[in-house]
Amino acid sequence: MWCIQEITEEYRARMYRLLELYKQPYDPSQPMICMDEKSKQLLEDTRQPIKAKPRKPEKYDYEYKRNGTCNIFIAVAPKAGMRIVKVTDTRKKEDFAYFVEDLVEKHFPNAICIQLVLDNLNTHFEGSLTETFGKRKAARLQNKVKFIYTPKHGSWLNMAEIEINIMDRQCTGGRIENQGTLESKVLSWSNERNNDKAKIEWKFTRQDADKKLSRHYVS
Question: What CATH number is given for 27-47+61-194 in this structure?
Answer without folding.
Answer: 3.30.420.10
